[in-house]
Amino acid sequence: MASSPRKSLASLLATLVGGNVITILNEGDGWPSRLRVRTSQGAIDVDAYLGPVSPSHRSREALERRFQSPGPNRPIRAPTDAVALLFGVFEEMKRPVIVGLDAVTRMAERNTRQSLFIPLNQLIRAAETGWAEHVSALGDRSIAFTPPRLVDYVELRTPGVRPEVIYDAPQLLLPPTKVIPDATPKIITDIAPKIEIAYAALAARLKQHPDGVHDLTPRQFEILIAELFEDMGWRVQITSLTRDGGADVLAYLDTKAGSLLSLIEAKRYGRERKVGVDIVRSLLGTVQDFNANSGMIVTTSSFTRDAREFRQRHEYRLALHDYNQVLEWIRQYGGSAEDGSVPPRSEPTL
Asked: What pLDDT is stored for residue 320 in this prediction?
C-alpha cells in the first residue's frame, strides 16, 4: 500500500485512533502538526513531527523500513507550550502501525536531512501484539504500536505525566488498553481498521463470483492473494506500490522448527497471456538476494512450458500457482465450501 503524503498524516492519525482522542489544532505541513491528545491525565498538546515509514531503498527491504525528515534546514523545534514527538506511520500491512521515535534531540541539533531505520520484524510484532520496542546501535529507541495505544505513548513521553502503567523497558511490557471516558467503544472498534474489513469482503465476494478475479486491478489481486494466504495461516505483508522489482507479498509461515519466508509475486493477467520463464527466473534471483526460503508466482492465467521446466529444476525454491489454484483457494476461503461443508485444505506447496 502506498504511503500517505506527510501533510495528510495528522488527519490519518486522528482517524486511525478514533474516539475523538485527537483534535487537530493546526495541521500545518506535518512537520509539525499541532495536535491536542485526550488522555486519562487530561488534554496534552503535541507538536507532532510526522512522516511515512517506507522502504529503505538500500537492498534491505526484507529487514527494515525508513523514516526521514522532510529535508535540510528543517530541524525539530522544542515548543514551550507543548511536547515535541516524532511519529512515523506504517501503512503497508493490513493493520496500520504507528512508530514513536526517540530521536528528537539528534534531529534538533542537525540541519541536514536525517534518516531513522526501523526493523521490519518490530513493525510486524507491533501489528500482532499492539506494542513492540527496539533500541538501535546508535541508541535511538523506537516504540511501534497500534493506533489505540497512541495515548499510552504520549503519556509515556510527556514530562511530568505519570502513565497508569509502569513501563519496564528491559522487559518490554505490553501496556493494557486505556479506559478513556466516552471513547472506549470507538477505540475498540477501530482496532480492526475498515481497510482490513474491505480485504476480507473482497475475498468473500469472489467466493460467490470467482470469475470476477479477472476484473480486479493488479493491486486488488495482490491484496486478494495476501488475504487468501492469511486465511491459510500465513502472516502477510503487502509491499509498497513504489518498489522497484521484488515481491508483491511477503508471507511468513511459523513452524515448530522456525519461521519461513516466501516471496510472492502476483500476476493479474488475461486468460490467454501466460507467465513466461523470464519472470520465474527473476523471482529466483530475488529469493536469493533476500535470502528467503522460497518464492511463489500466483497468476490468473497459466505458465509457459519453459517456465514450468525452469521451476522443476528449482522445485525446492519455487512454486507456480495458476488460475485453477487461485479458484480453489477462493472456494476454500473462510473454511467452508458454498454448500457449508468444510473442503480439504489445499495449501500452497513447493
From this structure: 97
Burial 218-233 (b: 16+ CB within 10 A, else e): eebbbbbbbbbbbbbe
Q: d(Cα 11, Cα 263) in Å, to the nearest integer?
A: 33
Q: pLDDT tens digits for 255-303?
A: 888 889 999 999 999 889 999 999 999 999 999 988 899 999 999 999 9
Cβ count near 160 (within 10 Å): 6
Contact 252, 235 (CB under 8 A): yes
Beta pairing class for 141-145 and 97-102: antiparallel
What is the average pLDDT value for the chain, to the nearest integer? Answer: 79
The per-residue pLDDT for 240 is 57
Q: Phi-psi category of 189—alpha, beta or left, where left has phi over 0 and alpha has psi -120 to 50?
A: alpha
pLDDT of 244 > 70? The answer is no
Dist CA 151 CA 162 (whole Å):
12
Q: What domains can be seen in the chain, in order of their start residue?
A: 6-190 (no CATH), 194-335 (3.40.1350.10)
The 10 Å Cβ neighbour count of residue 12 is: 18
Provide the whole-model pTM.
0.50
